[in-house]
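Please, structure for the following, as tokens.
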Amino acid sequence: MVRVEFLGPIQKEPLELEITNLNELAKILQEDESMKEWLENSAVAVNDTLVSSRDVVLKDGDRVALLPPVCGG
């Protein structure tokens, strides 16, 4: 089971999913209209390490976090 967390202004409760890579997660989240904008702009971290490929292999107990862009001063 992989835990998916949504940080910052993304108003979504964490999910527990049986997935093996980030491509599977993207397909699931694209079905949610409210997530489409966030998917285009957010960085992704697996176990607190930023990743740039959706081919990252996920294993039981991994934590995926969607990190939306932040601005401030």
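The CA atoms of residues 2 and 19 lie 7 Å apart. The chain has one domain: 2-67.
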